Amino acid sequence: QLQACGGGLVQAGESLRLSCAASEINFEDYAIGWFRQAPGKEREKVARITSGGSTIYADSVKGRFTISRDNAKNTVDLQMNSLKPEDIGVYYCTLASVYWGQGTLVTVSS
Fold it and tell me: What count of Cα atoms within 13 Å lies in the side-chain half-sphere of residue 64?
């Protein structure tokens, strides 16, 4: 089971740090991704980190978001800086696109 947390309401330009934790699943061997879904839009990939630590980002968040993992804690974080109103959405973490967390809401006011 995956649990995502850290969402909230911030002003444009501020930061949030999301965290994804797993119970009964060992993160270490899997790629973990963050997706988001804005109201009325399809879910889109935001960032992904492989088991080896390689990362990939959506063009819209490159240079602002950083995904990282702590295998000892079984967590994957998403540091989001310089947030924009277009970053609004429910953010989900996923393990290998098979297991999904419940989502955490990010709201950015302009």
Answer: 17
Buried-exposed string 7-16: b where 16+ CB fall within 10 A, e elsewhere: beebeeeeeb
Say if residues 70 and 22 touch (Cβ distance below 8 Å). no
Structural contact between residues 89 and 38, judged by C-beta atoms closer than 8 angstroms: yes
Q: What is the pLDDT along the chain (110 residues), one digit of tens a residue?
A: 889 999 999 999 999 999 999 888 888 889 999 999 999 999 999 999 999 999 999 999 999 999 999 999 999 999 999 999 999 999 999 998 889 989 999 999 99
